[in-house]
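Final report, Chapter 2: Outcomes

The project's central promise was a pipeline that accepts a single protein chain and returns its three-dimensional structure in a standardized token representation, suitable for archiving and comparison. That pipeline is now operational. To close this chapter, we reproduce one record exactly as it appears in the project archive, with the input sequence first and the structure output second.
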Amino acid sequence: EYLAETTTQTSKKMSTYTVVVFGATGFTGALVAEYLAETTRDSTDEKIKGLTWAISGRNQSRLEEIKQNLKKINPKANPGVIVADSADQGSIDNMVKQAKIIICTAGPFYRYSIPVVDACVRFKVHYVDITGEAHFIRKIASLYHEDASKNGTFIVPSCGFDSVPSDLTAFLIVDRIQKKFNSKTSKVVNYATNMSGGFSGGTFNTILDAFKVRSERQPRDASQRKPVAGDSTNNYKQLDFMGFGYDGTAGLWTAPFIMSAINAKAVRKSNELLNHAYGSKFAYQEGMGMKSMWSALGVTTFMFTFMILVLLKPFRYLMGRFGPQPGTGPSKEQREKGFFKMSAYGISENNSKDIVRANVVGKYDPGYKGTSQMVTESALCILFDVLSDEKKPFPGGVLTPASAMGHRLADRLRTRLGMRFDVE
């Protein structure tokens, strides 16, 4: 059982490192470490150049190998090496209490990362991760939100491609509608219109694992099923998956987007955490948007076929046996050439003709190089932008990227990563 009940009994010791990357021997974790090596090498910001950091995982020899590779990127890089295993709470505690913030890339998160969050809350160490597992987020929110809020610890899951672009896009559209039309927002619709990247064994196995643990899931809180928690009068139907159809407002044919299930929940949770600032009847939907009807129909057919098959245990076994294995992923060339584009619009609550549109563009493969950069910048945003802000909306808690960081993170991603959030 997890140690939530002991939270208030543990005090924070002096940190040895500013940042610790847990899961650094995995594919994405190694990319986070590479980005930290590049960032500390190239930055002119003294806070960044003076960053102390460490890499952590179960295999010391593999960690030492990664450390040597990092020196090829930055000869001055000298990250600490901390051996820690999620099956050994003592080793996790030892890792966490040496950090100011943990960047966690160890998935499947429901199986491996709850002990890390537990220790972070007990030792008052901030935490970000790259999870796309809704059942994991529900679990840590139910166990740790109250204690993290009380002791000022920021626990912010889903700080990678799921769900930073979607969460910030909705946040920025809502903000523009409020300023332009002096109105709340009735709905935001977001489409992934073009992207290029790869697929790693870790992500593949996390998807399969999500179906294995379905029986362990807690009941969903109401905010993740519908726009307003407990509002039985709400008429806005909330579907995580958008089906085949045509959206005249966007001028696009629609199909399901595999990441909409987690992204939609993150956006709705942001609205709830921010006291329904988006709107009392705010709705959010996400899908893939295409110019070709036949392309949209083909994607829809494939997606629904896959979703049916993956429910079958023999199919999952075969996929796990012959699919990509953990530690593998897209090549460096694929990661460098990758990109993503999203197109969204929001409609004013006061007048359905008042519409704000947004285009979001990111460089690099979104699932890996992009994600490793986004989660690292999220960690730095909490440390250097949020904690020092007396006007921050929350003292701590289990939060979303938009509710925890909002404009601060959007500005950082524009400046540091060249991401575009064009809202008009």
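Archive annotation: Residues 4-9, 215-237 have pLDDT under 50 and may be disordered.
This record, like all others produced under the grant, will remain available to the consortium after the project formally closes.
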